[in-house]
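thought: fold this chain, then report.
action: predict
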Amino acid sequence: MSSRLGILGGMFDPVHNGHVAAALSAVESMDLDLLKMVPCHIPNHREQHQLSAQHRLKMLRLALRREIKLAVDDCEILRGGVSYAVDTVAEMRAGGNWDQIVFVLGADALNGLPQWHEWRALLQACHLFVLGRQSHSIDTDVALEIGLEKRRVAKPEHLFEAETGRIFFAEGFDVELSSTQVRELLTKGGEVASLLNAQVYKYISHYALYGCSTEIHSESILERQI
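observation:
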């Protein structure tokens, strides 16, 4: 049986339950051996992160510490500079024994794919698993430019009938939750406990991140868990 790796990049500023749900959905749908969540160093087309790489990495590790098939990978942070998906996929292909690599992204991100750095090379190096949110549709011009009609498959297992370049839409996954929304709630003192891993929530509160005013006395064990 071939080995399958998933990659989910993002700012994770902060990581929330929607990120983890997306990762687990991808693992289950494609029967992945492992999915790596990769925090971005400097984004190419998005706003800059608010927190340092250190904070974002620590929160990710807290969120995933009980997940068997999810892992944190800091390759983009270690690489420095602007983070490009094509470089990350190439690095993981060169550094592991993976037969198949799948890059996980949202439908909104797919609409911007023609503006990505060396996007054609990306499609030559991996498959795409698209979280098809109902509120987003794929632009007709984008679909034509990336050859969506020929690349799209009806079932996730059909991705692996080719080495690279196929696209699957997970239309059943529809979690409308963003880190921006979570940050705004934290700043305003809104209810976020149900949106975050409990240890991540404690970490944010302990360091008063994002202007969070909630006081939680975190035990010293919190630092040892990171």
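thought: worth noting. The mean pLDDT is 89.
final: tokens above.
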